[in-house]
Design a protein that fits this description.
Length: 498
């Protein structure tokens, strides 16, 4: 198999290379038609998808129909939404009306939702085009996209490597220019990890900012839907569209809708940046740290100040995260029994327990089954206090660490991932080794704080991500810092050669 490599951005742009902001502007000004742009995207998919395998489903016919509808609107001079014509790839755990939504699981292989998630309704209202559904770890449980029932996605920078996960298909699709932007979900790092491994901008919003209605739950107290894009501007635009209050999600906060593009100034003077020493300790590779220290120097050159801070409870974060995530998963996934929902074996002989167990044994993959079993154990009488309650207490202590540190700094930075992208197959048989990869991303989910990953360098041809964590509901600051970094560096301009 041919491996990827770095290729600097070509001078002459093809339509599939353009950003969401550029595309919608060109469509609005009638410089291009939506249809010709979409053909360019579909052609690109035809060229590279065989190598990357980012999608579970591409809805080319539906997308073309929508493109023509937008072109008709343009010709009639009708008002267009801010994502006019932009092709969006959607992680396959976000419900799309009349488009199969599988969670990359055999359990939901043939599930076609009769309704749209709130974020999908909002994309459609902004005149975006749903291009297809992207590959992911089964039920979002994983860090590499290898647990997908539909086969693994390959890292476009080196096809032998994992793209990160669980939103690996979304990140790979965007950086290989098969889609202009994408949506992912992040329960313990699933947007930021693939963003780091594929060189995207990936944002996990503050818990409660984006509606989870229509997101198929893995661990609902931790997760948020968010954008995966090639630029910070596109990230801000997409967030402006998908965020905001929704009655159908009881955890959605009632804040006024914001235009996040208005925060994008190239200015971080006087900004206080914390570097938690726990983000740079044992287990974090030199190659992951180096580019982050270079980024810290850059921020100081641009007028910010960097300070060492400490989050002592972080050493318990991973254990607390996995207990809480698996406990919630065991309860959320109880509904898939093949009777009310999900895969059903043809042979349905036996009593309820036999049928239920058989359907779940065949319908779920090994990692999902492992987590259901561990989660059920942690919630069972006698162990509930010892595991689940203790994990909740640790969660509170971690949040207190965050609150204390954020009294003195505006944002904290560190690597997104402790190790660079590794070979497909290298860690999949060692779950603990895989769970360790999430050590730097789970704190933002346990606390609910917003966090973004932006490209900050390459080592041996593989991308490195810089993680920036901000105060709750201060996505504006987060985006301004990310934007300033992007404006003063070139890492976002590189593309893998496929
Ligand atoms: N890798 C983490 C897990 O497996 C996070 C997954 C996610 O954010 N959905 O739980």
């Amino acid at each position: 198999m041919k491996t990827g490599g770095i290729e600097e951005k070509r001078a002459l742009s093809k339509l599939y290379e353009l950003t969401a902001i550029e595309i919608s502007e060109k469509i609005r000004n009638q410089e291009i038609s939506t249809e010709e742009y979409l053909y360019s995207i579909l052609e690109r998919i035809g060229q590279v998808e065989k190598k990357v395998h980012a999608f579970v489903t591409v809805v080319d016919e539906k997308a073309l129909e929508k493109a023509r509808e937008i072109d008709r609107k343009v010709r009639k001079g009708e008002k267009l939404g801010c994502l006019a014509g932009v092709a969006v790839a959607v992680k396959d755990n976000i419900c799309t009306r009349n488009i199969r939504t599988t969670c990359s699981s055999r359990m939901l292989e043939n599930f076609v939702p009769p309704y749209d998630a709130t974020v999908i309704e909002r994309l459609k209202a902004a005149d975006a085009i749903i291009l297809g559904k992207t590959n992911m770890d089964e039920f979002a449980m994983g860090t590499t996209t290898e647990t997908s029932y539909f086969g693994t996605t390959h890292n476009p920078w080196d096809l032998r490597k994992v793209p990160g996960g669980s939103s690996g298909g979304s990140a790979a699709a965007v950086i290989s220019e098969e889609a202009t932007v994408a949506l992912g979900s992040d329960t313990g790092g699933s947007i930021r990890c693939p963003a780091s491994y594929c060189s995207n901008v990936g944002l996990k919003p503050t818990y409660g900012l984006v509606s989870r209605y229509g997101l198929i739950s893995y661990a609902n107290s931790l997760e948020q839907i968010g954008p995966l894009t090639r630029t910070v501007r596109d990230c801000a635009l997409l967030l402006s569209v998908i965020s905001g209050h929704d009655d159908r999600d009881s955890t959605s906060v009632n804040l006024a809708q914001k235009d996040y593009l208005s925060f994008l100034q190239d200015d971080i003077k006087k900004l206080k940046i914390g570097l938690p020493k726990e983000f740079f300790e044992e287990g974090v590779e030199e190659d992951a740290k180096g580019p982050v220290f270079e980024a810290a120097d850059k921020f100081e050159d641009l007028g910010a100040s960097c300070h060492e801070v400490s989050l002592p409870m972080m050493s318990y974060a991973l254990a607390a995260y996995y207990i809480i995530a698996m406990s919630e998963a065991s309860s959320n996934l109880a509904r898939y029994d093949g009777l009310r929902y999900g895969y059903r074996e043809e042979n349905d002989e036996g009593d309820f327990d036999t049928v239920f167990s058989r359907n779940r044994r065949i319908g779920f993959g090994a990692e999902v089954r492992r987590r259901i079993i561990l989660g059920t154990y942690a919630l069972s009488a006698g162990y509930f206090e010892q595991y689940y309650m203790k994990a909740l207490k640790i969660r509170t202590l971690i949040r207190r660490d965050f609150e204390r540190v954020f009294k003195n700094v505006d944002v904290i930075i560190g690597p997104t991932m402790p190790v660079l992208p590794f070979d497909i197959g290298e860690r999949i048989d060692d779950p603990l080794k895989l769970y360790m990869c999430d050590i730097l991303t789970v704190p933002a989910n346990l606390t609910g704080y917003p966090a973004i990953s932006v490209p900050c360098g390459f080592r041996n041809g593989l991308p490195v991500g810089l993680q920036i964590i901000g105060k709750p509901f201060e996505e504006g600051t987060l985006l301004r810092v990310a934007y300033t970094f992007e404006r003063n560096t070139d890492y976002h301009k590189y593309r893998p050669s496929l």
